[in-house]
Amino acid sequence: MKVILASASERRQELLTRLIKDFDIVVSNFDESEIIFEGSIDKYVQDIALGKAISIKNNIHEDAIIISADTIVTLDGKILGKPRDEKHAFDMIKSLQGRKHFVYSGIVVINTALNKTVKESLYTEVTFASMSDEEIREYIKTKEPLDKAGAYGIQGIGGTFIQEIKGCYYNVVGLPLNKLKTMLEQVK
């Protein structure tokens, strides 16, 4: 059966090749602002991932397994999305210095042939090392932080500033492979 990844993320696409060699990429047109954050981060990321998956399901005309995910960074219970600009990226990275924060992912897998949907979420605790303002500015000059939730990429240069993680590394990258593998088995 066809497998569809509902994501434009190159990181997710690369990670999925570790589980599935042949899949299609269909970018969801789901408007994430339709989901209102009501206090539960787990529910919030699952609802966004579900919205993306259903958007794809409603626009295909064949049976498929649809995989979607959403990943966010939280600090002190507040969501840190992608930075608006370099100043916003600086402020985000500065706020993470020497502190623990959490990276949450919501994952949804739908088997349209069986009309079976599995939703999960998980988090990873990440501790950022201290950085000087100059180090932050130099990191921002690489442009890596500008399209990443929380303004850093653990799989890139940003990984050099990570002191410790507790939980799934691939979750921080954007697609928790072990969790996804289990979910794929559940929809068969």
TrEMBL record:
Residues flagged as site, Important for substrate specificity: 11, 71, 155
Primary enzyme class: hydrolase
Identification of the protein by name: dTTP/UTP pyrophosphatase
Enzymatic reactions: dTTP + H2O = dTMP + diphosphate + H(+); UTP + H2O = UMP + diphosphate + H(+)
Taxonomic classification: Bacteria, Bacillati, Bacillota, Clostridia, Eubacteriales
InterPro entries the UniProt entry points to: ITPase-like_fam, Maf-like
Entry keyword annotation includes Cytoplasm: yes
Subcellular location: Cytoplasm
Keywords for the protein's UniProt record, in alphabetical order: Cytoplasm, Hydrolase, Nucleotide metabolism
Enzyme nomenclature, EC number: 3.6.1.9
Family (UniProt): Belongs to the Maf family. YhdE subfamily.
Entry keyword Hydrolase: yes
Active site: 70 (proton acceptor)
Known cofactor(s): a divalent metal cation
Biological role: Nucleoside triphosphate pyrophosphatase that hydrolyzes dTTP and UTP. May have a dual role in cell division arrest and in preventing the incorporation of modified nucleotides into cellular nucleic acids.
